[in-house]
Amino acid sequence: MAALAEEQTEVAVKLEPEGPPTLLPPQAGDGAGEGGGGTTNNGPNGGGGNVAAASSSAGGDGGTPKPSVAVSAVAPAGAAPVPAAAPEAGAPHDRQTLLAVLQFLRQSNLREAEEALRREARLLEEAVAGTGAPEADGAGTEAASTLLSRVTASAPGPAAPDPPGTGASGAAAVSGLATGSAAPGKVGSVAVEDQPDVSAVLSAYNQQGDPTMYEEYYSGLKHFIECSLDCHRAELSQLFYPLFVHMYLELVYNQHENEAKSFFEKFHGDQECYYQDDLRVLSSLTKKEHMKGNETMLDFRTSKFVLRISRDSYQLLKRHLQEKQNNQIWNIVQEHLYIDIFDGMPRSKQQIDAMVGSLAGEAKREANKSKVFFGLLKEPEIEVPLDDEDEEGENEEGKPKKKKPKKDSIGSKSKKQDPNAPPQNSLFFFHRIPLPELKDSDKLDKIMNMKETTKRVRLGPDCLPSICFYTFLNAYQGLTAVDVTDDSSLIAGGFADSTVRVWSVTPKKLRSVKQAADLSLIDKESDDVLERIMDEKTASELKILYGHSGPVYGASFSPDRNYLLSSSEDGTVRLWSLQTFTCLVGYKGHNYPVWDTQFSPYGYYFVSGGHDRVARLWATDHYQPLRIFAGHLADVNCTRFHPNSNYVATGSADRTVRLWDVLNGNCVRIFTGHKGPIHSLTFSPNGRFLATGATDGRVLLWDIGHGLMVGELKGHTDTVCSLRFSRDGEILASGSMDNTVRLWDAVKAFEDLETDDFTTATGHINLPENSQELLLGTYMTKSTPVVHLHFTRRNLVLAAGAYSPQ
């Protein structure tokens, strides 16, 4: 069988929500079954108007896989007939499609399936013989070829388990052995790709239900769920919102406007409070014409809403819909929902509420199982030269000299290889991601950083940092972005009047490089050449950078302080030189406003995110993006590089956080749980944890390695605009539009985490209600929203915001 697997591969074309079909690379079918990912893809396989993917199962003839075809509108002998799924023989279009399916079953020698379908549709044998209806037969042949074009033969593999519910009411699977269709010497399973819109496969089966019955269908399901046991009620209640949305959209799409309005008014108040913004948009879609080109409409129609439900709760739901023969709801479950079934105890209301709230439901468990190298890169060894300045100053006060081994320990700290770090070749110092080589100035800066580290204040509950607040007064231009250099010497502000302003927050003023004519007179070999090239005539505390044609929403200094990035409503990202204070490059890739941009911790690379729903990875010497991270369903509001520069985190208005692998552009983590658009992100210094803040006022903590939520910090009453860990990771600072800075005990928040395999597999998150215990301090401003936070190298907190008079 292994030889067959190597010989036969599958190339599948999947219809994406937007744009042309994407051709997936061939994948060997010798793995854990092509159907493994589809096990819970639709909840149960099959359903009204659906041709479901079937997985091969090993037979009794020496393990030869036996292909099976699942045809949803078919009920085996003895099964209850499904009125909605049986097409009427009188309808010509339905008849042609039915003939096509029967002909396909006959060609595949699936006699049992053919007979069952014919009995169900009450057709006579002569209808398929082709003697009395040549036109219909020709149309059937054409339809059959269309259907066959969507069928792919996959290589044999281990049997994939059938999803729960296969063969349920309204979705009966009929299997048989295909012998004539497979090429000699090759055995394959017949599978049909799962499409976002099932009507694209067999439009004849997409039958519209009675619009006057929608309220009764929904009320019946609501009554059933509310009367079920407490352990199942919380899980099944997740169905209310997606079913409500799709039933309403179906009514509007089919131009039953009065019924849609009545349905919305009757049930919209039952939905969770965090869906109110989405419902407000939905209420404006009252006619079919409104739906064309509407982004929210596009999201609901093309992305499956993910529900994570235990197997017991799912079986309960399936039995109810089977008994009631409620095909309208079942079809929506099939076509528009992804039911992620897990074995184990149902989750509680508290556990579910912690994870839901995003535009597309929860994240699939499969989405968070990829390996993530969250460890830090091994730093190059840099010898720290002896420096007597501090010692001389201390001797004047009569204190003993500092011992040098303390400094050496800082340098040796990075010599150990982190087992969770991205793989690298130690011989050639080759990283997983190509990084720029350290220049002499970078090495000097690292030495300065190490010296500063020796004077760093060790923070904790008993030793909180001081906070220095920079208030932008008279900022009538509208402060929209702030950033501070790593060494805390410069601060930049982006403004709504399209300017970028840079201030020096040290006594050293900002100077530009001299003109070319003056530079030619300088001795380039002198030791102080870097000082001589600067023009003292241009020295000032403030420099204003002009170039954007819209509000500046993002700003980021390069680690070496030579460059500044700014992103704007004009759709561009600009790179500014801090030597000449001029624009060097304008990066044009986004077609809409760019909300944020961020330099890599190692420089060279930067990321941007905007209204076009994608984040882009750039290199400063390329005018085209290196990677495009697409997957969010709404604006990308904030971006952040992982400390090892191998990953990028993005926060979106779709209420999810995604982690992207820079190497291949894949999404390796999807975090759901926020109830509003996300506006701030920060990684812990060790790279293991991520903190996120949103308009819901909550700060959520995530374990990147396990892909789990591990903490929830409640206290803010407005949008959390900025988050920052202290240099040693012991304190988390959060700044908000509620005019406060709050300090949290990060060490206590991350200790004794439940990250066992069961928790990872099922999502049974038990968040401790200890926000007040973790809150170390709250610091209020008079009337200044906190836009930005920064920890200096000695762990002093710098905060910034624009004063807003009441």
From TrEMBL:
<keyword id="KW-0677">Repeat</keyword>
<feature type="repeat" description="WD">
    <location>
        <begin position="472"/>
        <end position="513"/>
    </location>
</feature>
<feature type="repeat" description="WD">
    <location>
        <begin position="629"/>
        <end position="670"/>
    </location>
</feature>
<dbReference type="InterPro" id="IPR020472">
    <property type="entry name" value="WD40_PAC1"/>
</dbReference>
<comment type="similarity">
    <text>Belongs to the WD repeat TAF5 family.</text>
</comment>
<feature type="repeat" description="WD">
    <location>
        <begin position="713"/>
        <end position="745"/>
    </location>
</feature>
<dbReference type="InterPro" id="IPR007582">
    <property type="entry name" value="TFIID_NTD2"/>
</dbReference>
<feature type="region of interest" description="Disordered">
    <location>
        <begin position="1"/>
        <end position="69"/>
    </location>
</feature>
<dbReference type="InterPro" id="IPR036322">
    <property type="entry name" value="WD40_repeat_dom_sf"/>
</dbReference>
<keyword id="KW-0539">Nucleus</keyword>
<dbReference type="GO" id="GO:0016251">
    <property type="term" value="F:RNA polymerase II general transcription initiation factor activity"/>
</dbReference>
<feature type="repeat" description="WD">
    <location>
        <begin position="545"/>
        <end position="580"/>
    </location>
</feature>
<dbReference type="InterPro" id="IPR019775">
    <property type="entry name" value="WD40_repeat_CS"/>
</dbReference>
<keyword id="KW-0804">Transcription</keyword>
<feature type="domain" description="TFIID subunit TAF5 NTD2">
    <location>
        <begin position="209"/>
        <end position="337"/>
    </location>
</feature>
<dbReference type="Pfam" id="PF00400">
    <property type="entry name" value="WD40"/>
</dbReference>
<keyword id="KW-0853">WD repeat</keyword>
<feature type="compositionally biased region" description="Acidic residues">
    <location>
        <begin position="384"/>
        <end position="395"/>
    </location>
</feature>
<feature type="repeat" description="WD">
    <location>
        <begin position="587"/>
        <end position="618"/>
    </location>
</feature>
<feature type="compositionally biased region" description="Gly residues">
    <location>
        <begin position="30"/>
        <end position="50"/>
    </location>
</feature>
<feature type="repeat" description="WD">
    <location>
        <begin position="671"/>
        <end position="704"/>
    </location>
</feature>
<feature type="region of interest" description="Disordered">
    <location>
        <begin position="384"/>
        <end position="427"/>
    </location>
</feature>
<protein>
    <recommendedName>
        <fullName>Transcription initiation factor TFIID subunit 5</fullName>
    </recommendedName>
</protein>
<dbReference type="InterPro" id="IPR015943">
    <property type="entry name" value="WD40/YVTN_repeat-like_dom_sf"/>
</dbReference>
<keyword id="KW-0805">Transcription regulation</keyword>
<comment type="function">
    <text>The TFIID basal transcription factor complex plays a major role in the initiation of RNA polymerase II (Pol II)-dependent transcription. TFIID recognizes and binds promoters with or without a TATA box via its subunit TBP, a TATA-box-binding protein, and promotes assembly of the pre-initiation complex (PIC). The TFIID complex consists of TBP and TBP-associated factors (TAFs), including TAF1, TAF2, TAF3, TAF4, TAF5, TAF6, TAF7, TAF8, TAF9, TAF10, TAF11, TAF12 and TAF13. The TFIID complex structure can be divided into 3 modules TFIID-A, TFIID-B, and TFIID-C.</text>
</comment>
<feature type="region of interest" description="Disordered">
    <location>
        <begin position="153"/>
        <end position="172"/>
    </location>
</feature>
<dbReference type="InterPro" id="IPR001680">
    <property type="entry name" value="WD40_rpt"/>
</dbReference>
<dbReference type="GO" id="GO:0005669">
    <property type="term" value="C:transcription factor TFIID complex"/>
</dbReference>
<comment type="subunit">
    <text>Homodimer. Component of the TFIID basal transcription factor complex, composed of TATA-box-binding protein TBP, and a number of TBP-associated factors (TAFs), including TAF1, TAF2, TAF3, TAF4, TAF5, TAF6, TAF7, TAF8, TAF9, TAF10, TAF11, TAF12 and TAF13. The TFIID complex structure can be divided into 3 modules TFIID-A, TFIID-B, and TFIID-C. TAF5 forms the TFIID-A module together with TAF3 and TBP, and in TFIID-B with TAF8. Component of the TFTC-HAT complex, at least composed of TAF5L, TAF6L, TADA3L, SUPT3H/SPT3, TAF2, TAF4, TAF5, GCN5L2/GCN5, TAF10 and TRRAP.</text>
</comment>
<feature type="compositionally biased region" description="Basic and acidic residues">
    <location>
        <begin position="407"/>
        <end position="418"/>
    </location>
</feature>
<dbReference type="InterPro" id="IPR037264">
    <property type="entry name" value="TFIID_NTD2_sf"/>
</dbReference>
<dbReference type="InterPro" id="IPR006594">
    <property type="entry name" value="LisH"/>
</dbReference>
<dbReference type="Pfam" id="PF04494">
    <property type="entry name" value="TFIID_NTD2"/>
</dbReference>
<dbReference type="GO" id="GO:0006367">
    <property type="term" value="P:transcription initiation at RNA polymerase II promoter"/>
</dbReference>
